[in-house]
């Protein structure tokens, strides 16, 4: 895509969420190192990674697919933070901070997906129009 992924607000906010989660899991019990800690880290790293990879793809369709994967990973993060709260691994204020950042990323991600879907639908309609738009002469 035309914009460097590092310039995308959604990517930056996802990176902030990843930093928060990495700080959060430092307080988890040691016996969770290969359980919930590992799963949570993988899920949160996947969010900005999928945004970046989708951005690097050559088509809107591929970009949308990677943004859908980012949204799935984001849902995993939310579930796992809520589980950590239920299990008493984190205090509610710590979980609330992560969940607030999660909401921010989720809204930005959904806005981006909606914009790309509109763009993709518009391009598809233009391709299939019985009245093609004349191309300008070079």
Automatic annotation (TrEMBL):
Pfam family, any one:
23S_rRNA_IVP
| Coiled coil location | none
Protein name (record): Four helix bundle protein
The scientific name of the source species is: Pseudoxanthomonas putridarboris
């Amino acid at each position: 895509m035309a914009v460097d992924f590092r310039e995308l607000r959604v990517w930056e906010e996802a990176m902030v969420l990843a930093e928060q989660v990495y700080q959060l899991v430092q307080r988890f019990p040691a016996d969770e190192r290969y359980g919930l800690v590992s799963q949570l880290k993988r899920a949160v790293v996947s969010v900005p990674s999928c945004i970046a990879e989708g951005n690097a793809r050559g088509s809107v369709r591929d970009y949308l697919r990677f943004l859908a994967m980012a949204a799935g990973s984001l849902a995993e993060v939310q579930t796992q933070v809520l589980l950590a709260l239920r299990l008493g691994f984190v205090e509610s204020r710590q979980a609330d901070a992560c969940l607030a950042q999660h909401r921010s990323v989720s809204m930005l991600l959904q806005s981006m997906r909606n914009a790309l879907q509109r763009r993709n639908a518009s391009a598809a309609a233009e391709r299939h129009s019985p009245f093609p738009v004349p191309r300008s002469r070079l």
